[in-house]
TrEMBL record:
Protein name, per record: Lipopolysaccharide/colanic/teichoic acid biosynthesis glycosyltransferase
Pfam families: Bac_transf (PF02397), CoA_binding_3 (PF13727)
Family the entry assigns: Belongs to the bacterial sugar transferase family.
Superkingdom of origin organism: Bacteria
Gene3D superfamilies linked to this entry: NAD(P)-binding Rossmann-like Domain
Length: 454
């Protein structure tokens, strides 16, 4: 069942499942966290460009570029703590670079400081207006606190005593809360309850619950809510830029990454796959034909070897490789040295035997970068024996991966591979794929010049 399947219907909800927002309060529109700062920033920058006489097209371009810079840097996210001081360096930097490009049109170097000042003033005014609305019971957001222990109780009390945060707390816990805050259900129902109560924020207090929060959050991603983690030692500072942190009355909150689990990320990754796989296939087609002919003439059977592999959750594909062992010798986990030739050992060592999988990538069955796909029998076995092994199937299998560029291939630790694969999925960015491809090319070239042994 997906998150979309859990959306509430038009009928009334049972009393026990009503939203934590109280009678008389007005909930914030779902789009408010998305549109508030872009609208405020655009209005402030447009006013500055007009006041300084920047022509229409350059002025519009300036506003658009600043908004894009802030969006890419995470500066448009509506934080819980609306303190402007933490945002000043980010706002100044976003206003400065585009302004430098418009000096020929402005005949003045004051656009950057004026733009930065306007952003700070607009954010300050917007934050003050939000806090005033929250104190009057307007634009209130439901927040689910996972864990009703000491940290969760402290957060719930702070949110009740300080309505300027605009959050109405409710717990997800295995038992009742001692402070009277409503408990809406168990942590295992996180995805369902976020949708049912239209919660916009979730705070994970790992030390306040025995639930496996990693598995729970992964199972219901992407959640239609911001998810935060309370550090296990909140009294100590964390090496995370202040602009990315959030805070509730002295308790730091670390937001979890969302982009890697969105539809935009899926489309960006697919575009990367098509471009890279298409370019490599055109560039390496002569090499692939020569290698296929060499394999065929070497007497090992057909040049191509096909095998069914698990390439994602509920997905499998016929993966194609250059044959490196005789027919009937490819059924085991490892390859016996007596079944290989110098050419096949070189192909396996350089990973050139994987080149035909570029076709799998172009067909959308695999990615260039991702967890290496395994045969169904091994995937099922590892999923039973290794914690969170199945989590690596959240994305398409890849020709190369974060585990492989760290030397985890062949007869190496499967738990370590799963750990590296899941870390890659959680921290994915387009740049990370570029890094993995570059490191793979370096490893392949080094191995090829060294004779292809591994």
């Amino acid at each position: 069942m997906s998150i979309a399947d859990l959306r509430p219907g038009p009928g009334p909800m049972p009393c026990a499942l009503r939203s934590p927002v109280r009678t008389g309060e007005r909930a914030a529109p779902r789009l408010l966290p998305v549109v508030l700062w872009p609208v405020v920033d655009a209005a402030a920058l447009t006013a500055v460009a007009f006041a300084m006489g920047v022509p229409g097209l350059p002025g519009a371009l300036y506003v658009a570029v600043v908004l894009v810079v802030l969006a890419v840097d995470g500066g448009q996210r509506l934080r819980i703590c609306l303190r402007v001081g933490d945002q000043v360096p980010r706002l100044a930097g976003a206003a400065a670079v585009p302004a430098a490009l418009l000096v020929p049109w402005t005949e003045s170097g004051w656009l950057a400081p004026a733009g930065a000042g306007a952003l700070v003033l607009a954010r300050g005014a917007g934050g003050a207006g939000m806090r005033a609305a929250h104190r009057r019971g307007l634009l209130v957001e439901p927040v689910l606190i996972v864990g009703a222990g000491p940290v969760g109780t402290r957060l719930a009390r702070a949110l009740r005593e300080h309505p300027e945060f605009g959050l109405r707390p409710a717990f997800l816990a295995d038992g009742p809360a001692g402070d009277g805050t409503p408990v809406l259900g168990r942590p295992q129902r996180l995805g369902e309850l976020v949708v049912r109560h239209r919660a916009t924020r979730v705070i994970l207090c790992a030390g306040d619950t025995d639930a496996d929060l990693v598995s729970i959050v992964r199972d219901c991603r992407p959640l239609p809510a911001e998810v935060y983690l309370v550090p296990s030692l909140p009294e100590l500072g964390v090496a995370v830029p202040q602009r990315f942190l959030d805070e509730v009355w002295g308790v730091p909150l670390v937001p979890l990454r969302r982009f890697a689990h969105t539809g935009a990320a899926v489309r960006a990754k697919r575009a990367f796959d098509v471009v890279v796989a298409g370019a490599l296939l055109v560039l390496l087609a002569p090499v692939l034909l020569v290698l296929a002919a060499a394999v065929r003439l070497g007497g090992g059977g057909a040049a191509l070897f096909r095998q069914r592999r698990v390439t994602g959750a509920g997905r499998s594909a016929t993966v194609v490789k250059l044959r490196t062992v005789p027919v009937g010798s490819e059924q085991g986990w490892s390859v016996c040295a007596t079944d290989t030739t110098p050419l096949s050992r070189w192909l396996r060592g350089t990973h050139f035997d994987e080149l035909p999988q570029l076709g799998n990538v172009l067909r959308g069955e695999m990615s260039v970068v991702g967890p290496r796909p395994e045969r169904p029998c091994y995937a099922e076995r590892f999923a039973r024996e290794i914690p969170r092994y199945h989590d690596r199937h959240r994305v398409r299998g890849g020709m190369t991966g974060w585990a492989q560029v760290h030397g985890l291939h062949g007869d190496t630790s499967i738990p370590e591979r799963a750990e590296f694969d899941n870390r890659y999925i959680e921290n994915w960015t387009p740049w990370l794929d570029v890094v993995v491809v570059a490191r793979t090319v370096g490893i392949v070239l080094t191995t090829a010049m060294g004779g292809g042994q591994r």
